[in-house]
Structures are given as C-alpha cells and as structure tokens.
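Async update (no meeting this week)

Hi team, since we skipped the sync, here's where things stand on the single-chain job. The sequence we agreed to prioritize is pasted below, unchanged from the tracker. I ran it this morning and attached the output directly underneath so nobody has to dig for it. Comments welcome in thread, and please keep replies under the output.
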Amino acid sequence: MKTQSPDQQFVVCVNNDGYSVSLERRKIYLTLPDDKAKEHDLLRVVDESGEDYLYPARFFVAIKLPQALREVFQRAA
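Output:
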C-alpha cells in the first residue's frame, strides 16, 4: 500500500470553469508536490484522466482526510 507523502494532500474542487471535462466540482482530488507550480499559484492535481496537470490553486480547497479515507483513496490511485 502506498503511503501519503508529507507533500501530497487532498483537495476539493470548488470551481471548474474552463475545465469541466477534467474536473468535477465538489470532488476530492490528490495533489502532487510541485514547488515551481506553487510559485505561480498553481496546483499539480491528478484529474479525471488519471494524469497530473496544473490548475489554478483558487479552484481548490485543501482538506485533511481521516486515515481510513486516505487509505481508500490511495488504494484507488
């Protein structure tokens, strides 16, 4: 089983303007660490395609999942 890196976090999509095929509002997504993206107010998000892409950070709200849910999400990844 994969373990969550300290830099990985989960976010909820609150806006998908212009990305309705790639992102679903109110859905939980995994982010991957990307310091260069952060400098530009972007997040690297594993989207509906299963690949990671950069999206505006303002489209998401970070959340903390209970351990049991983190494990479920990570098994599905």
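Quick observations from my side:
The chain has a mean pLDDT of 88.
The domain at 9-76 is CATH 2.30.30 (SH3 type barrels.).
Reply here if anything looks off.
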